[in-house]
Amino acid sequence: MVENRPFAAILSHLMLIVGIGIVCLPLWIAFVASTHDLSRMFQSPAPLWPGTHLVENYLAVLRSGIGQSANAPVGTMLVNSLIMALAIAIGKIAISIISAFAIVYFRFPFRVGFFWIIFVTLMLPVEVRIMPTYEVVAGLGLLNTYAGLTVPLIASATATFLFRQFFLTVPDELAEAARIDGAGPMRFFRDILLPLSKTNIAALFVIQFIYGWNQYLWPLIVSTEERYYTVVMGISRMVNVVDAVPTWNLVMATAMLGLVPPVIVVLVMQRLFVKGLVESEK
Amino acid sequence: MIKRATFQGVALPYALLLPQIAITLIFFFWPAAEALMQSVLLQDALGLKTRFVWLENFERVFSDAYYLSSLRITAVFTFASCLLAMGFALLLAVMADRVIRGAGAYKTLLIWPYAVAPALAGVLWGFMFNPTIGVIAYALDALGIKWNYYVDGDQALFLITIAAAWKYVSYSFIFFLAGLQSIPRSVIEAAAIDGAGPSKRFWTIVFPLLSPTTFFLLVLNLVHLFFETFGIVHALTHGGPGRATEILVFRVWSDGYRGQDYGGSAAQSVVLMAIVIALTVIQFRYVERKVHY
C-alpha cells in the first residue's frame, strides 16, 4: 500500500484469517466427523477435534458403502466420477478445438450459421431442458451407460469460443509460412496450432474436469443402477435415508472423498485454474 | 472473424465440425424443440392422447400460487446469496490485495471451495446446522435460538442461502482480486499524494474502477445460482419444509420427473430458457464492451 501503517496491515491479516476460518470451517467439521465412530455421532454437539477411526471409516466406505439403503461401494463411485470427469473434459476440449479450427481457418458455406448453432447453446444449461433431454437419452437407449452420462454434456460453446478467440490472436504469418512450405491444414494444426494452444488446453482441462466431476442432476436421473453412481450424486442417497438417522461419520468420509480430488486439482494447478476461469468467462 | 490466410477445402471443415454439431443438434436443439412442443400440448391422465392446447400450460403454470411463490423464493435466494458472496469476496479481495506477506497462501486457502460440488456444499453445511448434532445448531441453541430447519421454512431458506454463498465466494474473490491488481498503482498513489485516505481512495477510485468487474460478476453469479444450486436444494431440503425452498430449477425437475406433468414441466423449461436468454443478452449488451482486464 501507499502509506506505511502497521496497524492497518495487522487488521488486514486478521480479517483474512477470520475469513479463511469461516471458509474452511465446514471442511474441518466434516473431516473431524469422518474420524470418529458411530456412537460418537449420537452425542450433541458433533466433535471439533479428530478421533481415532480415520482409516477404519475410509476403508469401510471405499469397500462397501455405508450400509442401510446405500450399499454401492464408494470406490466404484469414485471410479465412475473419474471416468465422467475425464471423458467430459477431454471430449469437450477435443471436439471444441477442431470445430474452432474449422471455423477460423476455413472458408466454407454456412460457416457463420454453424458458429451460431454452437454459440446459442451457451444459453441452454442442461438444468433448463432437463426433462426433454432425459427423454431423448432414454429414447436412444443410453440410460445407465457411460455414454449417456457423458456425451450429452460434451458439447461446449464456451470451449469453442475460447479456442476461436485464441486462434484469432495467432499471427497469420504462421499459417502462410506453413502453406508456402507445403504443409496441409492438418499438419499445420498438429505441428503448430496444438503446441501453441498447450496452456489454453491445460487451463480449460482444469475447469472442465471440475465441471464433470461435480455434475449432480444429470447422473441423478441417468444412472439408476448403483454400478453407475457417481460420488457426488451417491452421497445424496446416503443423507436422505428413509426412517433412519444418517451414519454421519461415514457420510462425511464419503463427502471428503468426493471433494478432495477436484480440490487437489485446483490447488496443484492453481495458476492454470485461475487463467482458465478468467479466460473462459470473458 | 476469419483469418486472412485460410486453407482450401470444403469436406475437411465439415468433418471437423461434425462431432460438435451432431451433439449440439441431438442433445440441445432436439430437446429444446421438444420442450417448446410439449409446452403447448396436454396429455390425458392415461398418457394415451395428447392434444394441442395453445398456451393453457403456461396459464396453468402462472395461475398456480405455488409457482408464483417459487418465483419469489428463487428471487430472494439468488439475490441474497449473490450479494452475500460478493460482499464477503470483495472484502477479502481488498484485504488480500493490501497484504504483502502471505498473499499467495491466503489466496490458496480461499479459492478451494470453487471445486466443491454444490450438493457436497449442501451436505457440509447441513451437517453443521443439523438440529440434532450440528455444532452451529448447538451454539444457536445455547444462545436461545430454536433452530430446526426441518420444520422452519425461513430457516431452511437461510441455510441454502449461506451454503450457496459459501460455494460462490471463491469465484467472486478470484475475479475481484484480478480486477484490483489490474488497477494502476500510479492512480492510487496520485490520490494519496493529494491527501485522500484509504477509505476515500477506495470509494472514489478503486470501487468505480472495479464496477465493470462487479457488474459482470453479478450477472454471472445470478446465472450460476439460478441453475447450479439444484444440488444444494436437493441434497439439503428437497424443496421443503412445505414448499419453502422450492426454487424454479428444482420445480422443473420435481414436476417433470416425480409428478410426471410433462406439459407443465416443459412450460416451466420454456420460461427458464427465456430468463437465461434475457440474462445472456444483458451480459453481452452491457458487460462485454465494458469489462477490461
Describe the protein.
The complex is a heterodimer of chains A (282) and B (293). By secondary structure, chain A is mainly α. Chain A has one domain: Orthogonal Bundle (MetI-like fold), CATH 1.10.3720. Chain A has 14 helices and no strands. In chain A, α3 crosses α10, α10 packs across α14 and α12 runs antiparallel to α13. Chain A is globular and about 75 Å long. With 293 residues, chain B is mainly α. Chain B has a single domain, classed as MetI-like fold. Helices cover 72% and strands 2% of the residues of chain B. In chain B, strands 1-2 form a two-stranded antiparallel sheet. The mean pLDDT of chain B is 83.
Number of DSSP E strands of chain A: 0
Count of all domains of chain B? 1
Helix content of chain A: 55-70%
Unreliable residue runs of chain A: none
**Which ranges of chain B are low-confidence, i.e. pLDDT below 50, for 5 or more consecutive residues?**
none
Counted up, domains of chain A total 1
The description of the largest β-sheet of chain B is: 2 strands, antiparallel
Number of strands of chain B: 2
CATH level 1 name of chain A: Mainly Alpha
Estimated radius of gyration of chain A:
24 Å
CATH architecture of chain A: Orthogonal Bundle
Rg over C-alpha atoms of chain B, rounded to the nearest angstrom? 24 Å
**End-to-end gap of chain B:** 22 Å
How do the SSEs of chain B run, as a string of H and E?
HEEHHHHHHHHHHH
Any idea what the CATH superfamily of chain B is called?
A: MetI-like
What sort of overall outline of chain A do the alpha carbons produce when their principal axes are compared? globular
For this structure, the quaternary state is: heterodimer
Count of DSSP-assigned helices of chain B? 12
End-to-end distance of chain A, in Å? 28 Å
> What proportion strand of chain B?
under 5%
